[in-house]
Amino acid sequence: MLDYNKILQEIKPTKEEQNYLLEESDKLIKSLNKSLKGAKARLGGSLAKNTNIRGDKEVDIFAAFSYLRYKDKDVSKELGKLLKRHKPKKIHGSRDYFQIKSKDINFEIIPVLY
């Protein structure tokens, strides 16, 4: 029989790892929010839901743009302009998003409308 508690202990990040990811994410989010005029950076994905896996150093950050103000604009293009000083890598997908590497963490900045 599977021991789910044992499995969780093996795959769940340590408190130190979780705190490190949250602290580094918070620093980047604060920095992004100084750059993002018209949008607000927010933690998302598995780290925000506390479902991330030990050793996974990829963090999703959503750049939330106002639907009313940006519904007819390309928010990926807008985000790219706003992130220039962070020197992101542009990733093509169903919508373009951006990667910023900081220390040993890969941050993915995804534009969304709210």
Overview of the structural elements:
The structure is a single chain. The protein has five helices and five strands, in the order ααβαβααβββ. The protein starts with a helix and ends with a strand. The radius of gyration is 16 Å and the shape is elongated. Strand 3 and strand 4 form a beta hairpin. The protein has 114 residues and is α+β, with helices and mostly antiparallel strands. It is 40% helix and 28% strand.
What's a concise summary of this model?
The protein has 5 helices and 5 strands. The protein has 114 residues and is α+β, with helices and mostly antiparallel strands. A hairpin with a 5-residue loop joins strand 3 (89-91) and strand 4.
Relevant terms:
5 helices; elongated; single chain; alpha+beta; 28% strand; five-stranded mixed beta sheet; 114 residues
> Rg to the nearest angstrom?
16 Å
Spans of at least 5 consecutive residues whose pLDDT stays below 50 are none
Number of strands: 5
Order of helices and strands: HHEHEHHEEE
- Shape type: elongated
Distance between the termini: 44 Å
Provide the β-strand percentage band.
25-35%
Largest sheet at a glance?
Answer: 5 strands, mixed
The total count of helices amounts to: 5
